[in-house]
Amino acid sequence: MFNWFKSKIPTRESLKDHKILAKLHHLLHYHYLWHFNRHSVSKAIAIGSFFAFIPIPFQMVPAALSALIFRANVGISLATVWISNPITIPPMIYGAYKLGSWMMGHPELAISFDKSHDILRLLSHSWQPFLLGCITLSITFSLASYITARLLYRFWIGRKWHKNRAKTQTRTSKRKGAISPFSTFTQNNRLTYSLLLD
Q1: Torsion of CA 67, 73, 78, 82, to 10 degrees
Q2: How far apart are CA 131 and CA 137, in angstroms?
Q3: Helix (H, G, I), strand (E, B) or coil at 85
C-alpha cells in the first residue's frame, strides 16, 4: 500500500515538466525535501491539507514553497493539495459556506451546484462566511491530518520492526546454539528504526 502511494507522488524529475513549478526547480532539488520520515511526511500532509481548503489559484505553488520553508516532503505536499479537485470542490465550497454562515450567524442562500451562476452569486455576495469557513476547515484539517499522519507512520514503522524481529527470531531458532534474538539486531538496524521514528 505504501509503495503504491509512493509511486503516485510527484518526483523531482516530474516538476521539470510542470509549467509553473519548473521555475521553482532550482529551489526544490535538495535531497531533504524528498526524504521520507515521520516528520517530513506529517508536515507535508498538513501543508497540502491546509492549502487544499484555501480558495486560491495555483495552490501547488504555495504548497511547494511552504514545504521548502518547513523542510517537508515536497511530493506529498503537492499530492495532498489534490484533495480539492473538480469532483470535491463543489461540496467543499458548500461545506465551507455552511460552516462560515453558522459561525457568523449569516442567513444562508439557496444554492444549486448544478448552476454555475449560483456559485458565483455565493462568492460575490457571501464571500465573508465562505472565506471564514475555508480558513476554519483548512486549519482544522491541517492539524488533524498532521496528528493522524504521525500516529499512522509510527504504527507502520513499529509494525515493520516487529515483523523483522519475528523473522530474525525464526532464523536464529533454527541455528545450533542460537544466541538471543535481541543480539542479532545490529547497531545499524536499531539506528535505522530510531531515525525513522524520530
Answers
A1: -120
A2: 10
A3: coil
